[in-house]
Design goal:
It catalyses: D-fructose 6-phosphate + L-glutamine = D-glucosamine 6-phosphate + L-glutamate. There is one protein chain. This protein has helices spanning about 10-15, 15-25, 45-50, 60-75, 85, 110-120, 135-140, 160-180, 185-205, 210-215, 230-245, 285-300, 335-350; strands at about 50-55, 80-85, 100-105, 125-130, 145, 225-230, 250-255, 270-275, 305-310, 320-325. The chain is α/β, with parallel strands linked by helices. It is globular and about 55 Å long. The mean pLDDT is about 95. Fructose -6-phosphate binds near residues 59, 104, 105, 109 and 365. The site of fructose -6-phosphate has 15 residues, from helix 4 and helix 11.
Length: about 375
């Protein structure tokens, strides 16, 4: 049932191109516009929404953090992202014009369920992004956009995450398309780009051997740090989470701009730092900033592991290890930049002799608070 792979996690990482393609299937029409026929929320409600609030836990929360960049950019609707376990014990401000998006692979996460119940009690409309047909979270939501990752068996979420991202982009682009913003042309271009992205994920998977080798060489390290900016920041958080849960190593993700506000004190000789570099095209100021961050940490002895677009030559002099990813629109980059981090964590866990599919102390679906 592992289809020739040693672990379900490896199989599920390999299934990502298909999971991404399946999640897009039937949702883009021949004119290249999004249809989302399965989204049962009336367009009147979607047009009137004045705030989006995303609630989720763990990896799904990281998908939500990335979604915020896309939603605010393409729709100009303010978007908040909150850990479900925090949200429900605050006194969040919600009303009938709030669109709450609950993201959950299993559809059974208790904290996320409680958060959405709380939101509906306040009159908000709840859209679930979920991978499990007929599970509790979609049943209790106003509408559901299913991800089509197929069953995810390994405890560490991989293909579900990529499809959650796809679903979030679909929601953001659909809202943008529906409400009409100045980004109409960009939205059309990104929709076209989305249909190519599963192929790009495939290409990333074909070049992972050096990443595995690198991971094995770091098996005796105490700590690994992850840095990113913009959508690369949640990717850094996700890379760190994967490493904690699988390799049982200390790992932390930071926004690169925060370095000088504290984390740079952690940089010492030979500490591995993974840096997710935004595209040099588009928002090039972000790219220049992160290149100087890489210089700063390297000058303090860090071993830099740089994830950068093909053709980005500016990072080459400062990268001890360079991992190339295909060129994508800035906001879509997490679909390709996350993949090497999953492979990295999986291989490091294996090198440390850990049980990859069943990490200690963790359950696939957290149905208690
Ligand atoms: C991490 C992981 C967890 C889940 C979290 C939410 O690899 O799997 O952090 O993402 O428990 O689970 P769902 O998405 O089922 O609500």
């Amino acid at each position: 049932e592992k289809g020739g792979y040693d672990y379900f996690m490896l199989k599920e990482i390999a299934e990502q191109p298909k999971a991404v393609a399946d999640t897009l299937l039937g949702r883009i029409n021949v004119e290249g516009a999004l249809t989302l026929d399965d989204l049962r929320i009336p367009s009147r409600v979607l047009r009137a929404a004045d705030k989006v609030v995303i609630v989720a836990c763990g990896t799904a929360f990281h998908a939500g953090l990335i979604a915020k960049y896309a939603i605010e950019h393409w729709t100009r609707i303010p978007c908040e992202v909150e850990l479900a376990s925090e949200f429900r014990y605050r006194d969040p401000i919600l009303n009938t014009r709030t669109l709450v998006v609950a993201i959950s692979q299993s559809g059974e996460t208790m904290d996320t369920l409680m958060a959405l119940r709380h939101a509906r009690d306040q009159g908000a409309t709840v859209l679930a992004i979920c991978n499990t047909n007929g599970s509790t979270i979609p049943r209790e939501s106003d509408a559901v956009l299913y991800t089509h990752a197929g069953p995810e068996v390994a405890v560490a979420s991989t293909k579900a995450f990529l499809t959650q991202l796809v679903a979030c982009y679909l929601v953001a682009l659909y809202l943008g398309q529906l409400r009409g913003t100045k980004y109409g042309d960009e939205i059309r271009a990104v929709i076209r780009e989305l249909s190519r992205v599963s192929h790009e994920v495939e290409r990333v998977l074909e070049t992972m051997e050096p990443v595995r080798e690198l991971a094995r060489s770091l098996a005796d390290k105490k700590t690994v740090l992850f840095l990113g900016r913009h959508v690369g920041y949640p990717v850094a958080l996700e890379g760190a989470l994967k490493l904690k849960e699988l390799a049982y190593m200390h790992a932390e993700g930071f926004a690169a701009g925060e370095l000088k506000h504290g984390p740079i004190a952690l940089i010492e000789e030979d500490v591995p730092v993974v840096v997710v570099v935004p595209s040099p095209r588009g928002r090039s100021v972000l790219h220049d900033k992160i290149v100087s961050n890489i210089q700063e940490i390297r000058a303090r002895g860090a071993r830099t592991i740089v994830i950068a677009e093909e053709g980005d030559e500016a990072v080459v002099p400062y990268a001890d290890h360079l991992i190339r990813i295909p060129v994508t629109p800035t906001l879509l980059q997490p679909l390709v930049s996350t993949v090497p981090l999953q492979v990295f964590a999986c291989e490091l866990a294996t090198a440390r002799g850990n049980e990859v599919d069943q990490p200690r102390n963790l359950a696939k679906s957290v149905t208690v608070e």
